Amino acid sequence: MDYRHLGRSGLKVSEITYGNWLTHGSQVEDEAATACVRAALDAGITTFDTADTYANTRAETVLGEALKGERRESLEIFTKVYFPTGPKGANDTGLSRKHVLESAEGSLRRLGTDHIDLYQAHRYDHATPLEETMQAFADLVRQGKVLYVGVSEWTADQLRAGVELARQMGFQLVSNQPQYSALWRVIEGEVVPASRELGVSQVVWSPIAQGVLTGKYLPGQQPPEGSRATDAKGGKDMISRWMSDDVLARVQELKPVASDLGLSMAQLAVAWVLQNDNVAAAIIGASRPEQVHDNAAAAGVTIPADAMARIDEALGDAVVTDPARTADSSPKERLT
């Protein structure tokens, strides 16, 4: 496993990071989830990403149990705050001081740890002054409950404002967690250039486009039983944007590229995002241990320039590049 620095900080993270969105506490049973975490550890993955809203806090609990007994200093545990938890009361969401501080305590308890390595603002909160949010993060850092602070799906302007406030308050904003894959490249136009300037790394989610880039979904055919595209608990909705016959046919054209490089399709997809030097880590998810081992083998892979060009040619105009899509991902009004 290779490691990369997170932003300009001294923290190193495994470039393949294990995440449990849409799986732990939801799609897969706890025993299978634990097996996937063990597989991640066996593959050299030390960085684990979750969020309090995943399975309405259940995912944090499952991850905490799965990591119990591991040397804490050898792990980097990430979680997030913003989206609704609990009964979804008026203060059960957002980035108010109340919600941030109370959520941090809940995450620490569920994860079974006394500190969070990276605490991330899961979205930008238009209903709370940014100063209030950043002050709450600063206080958690000073208390030693949070070591580093990041965000998720923030625009270039939001990152600039956040980094400046963090600097004034005596801590670093080191990372952004956006969606990024060979099919979804909206961060490349504005977010990545700004992040390079600011010393912020990307920790990217969905590098395999919810499984589409594995090539297992075929144009004109029903999705395989048990796949994400058949999951009624949320997976089916998330993957739907990629399920057109045109996109699926273009993805099939990547198979000879992967074959020529001696990679599986999943490894090609994960290695593709890691070619971007602003990406510190690619988050993988899994419902079976063998998926973890397959994806983890993408660590350290270099894709030659001619193969990168072949990928671009194959996917063509199926690729989404509009920078405005980042702003679209943050709710304009607080969810309750």
TrEMBL record:
<dbReference type="InterPro" id="IPR036812">
    <property type="entry name" value="NAD(P)_OxRdtase_dom_sf"/>
</dbReference>
<dbReference type="InterPro" id="IPR005399">
    <property type="entry name" value="K_chnl_volt-dep_bsu_KCNAB-rel"/>
</dbReference>
<keyword id="KW-0521">NADP</keyword>
<protein>
    <submittedName>
        <fullName>Aryl-alcohol dehydrogenase-like predicted oxidoreductase</fullName>
    </submittedName>
</protein>
<dbReference type="GO" id="GO:0016491">
    <property type="term" value="F:oxidoreductase activity"/>
</dbReference>
<dbReference type="Pfam" id="PF00248">
    <property type="entry name" value="Aldo_ket_red"/>
</dbReference>
<keyword id="KW-0560">Oxidoreductase</keyword>
<dbReference type="GO" id="GO:0005829">
    <property type="term" value="C:cytosol"/>
</dbReference>
<dbReference type="InterPro" id="IPR023210">
    <property type="entry name" value="NADP_OxRdtase_dom"/>
</dbReference>
<comment type="similarity">
    <text>Belongs to the shaker potassium channel beta subunit family.</text>
</comment>
<feature type="domain" description="NADP-dependent oxidoreductase">
    <location>
        <begin position="15"/>
        <end position="314"/>
    </location>
</feature>
